[in-house]
Write a structure and sequence with these properties.
Order of helices and strands: HHHHHH
Largest sheet: none
Number of strands: 0
Structural class: mainly alpha
Shape: extended
Organism: Ruegeria faecimaris
Strand content: under 5%
Number of helices: 6
Oligomer: single chain
Protein name: Beta-barrel assembly machine subunit BamF
Pfam families: DUF3035
């Protein structure tokens, strides 16, 4: 009597586990603590020289301490953050970069194509990859063959004579 009941319980557990499709990534906070991705760092507060010269508050507008991710990224890449207006054309100083990066054409549906190719690939991996009794991140397992080994790439660049910044040791 116990054996059929245990087989039934295991079968039902597998059936229930197979009903959920959370994709390859199982991203949940590891505990009851805060979600570190929900916290946006801001620029440090500074005391103005003259409080009367401050701009009027703009409800719903930007703040002097708000982050500017587009401008910060452009500055980190050596560009001019003042020219970072998404409504304007590409600045003349960046024209050569845009031309070089789009020399093979720029398809407008790249995200949709990659998403469909990824869905087809995961479908070919089989039905059993969706069955989970425990929360497992399957992304690394499925895409292991295409993962880039940073240590091999660093060594290959160094062997080719390219200066590379220091990287952490392999064992750390």
């Amino acid at each position: 009597m116990r054996l059929p009941r245990s087989i039934f319980v295991v079968t039902m557990s597998l059936a229930v586990a197979g009903c959920s499709d959370i994709g390859l990534r199982h991203l949940e906070p590891p505990g009851p603590g805060p979600d570190e991705f929900a916290i946006l760092p801001v620029k440090p507060l500074t005391q103005p020289e003259n409080y009367n010269a401050l701009p009027a508050p703009t409800p719903g507008g930007t703040n002097l301490t708000d982050a500017n991710p587009t401008g910060d990224a452009i500055a980190a890449l050596g560009g001019n953050p003042a020219a970072a207006n998404p409504n304007t054309a590409v600045p003349a100083s960046d024209g050569a970069l845009v031309t070089a990066s789009s020399r093979y054409g720029v398809p407008s549906n790249t995200r949709q194509v990659v998403n469909q190719e990824d869905a087809d690939f995961r479908k070919r991996q089989g039905r059993w990859t969706r069955l989970r009794l425990f929360n497992v991140d399957r992304y690394s397992q499925v895409y292991r063959r295409w993962a880039i080994d940073p240590n091999k790439q660093t060594q290959a660049a160094r062997n080719a004579g390219i200066e590379t910044p220091s990287a952490p040791p392999v064992n750390e």
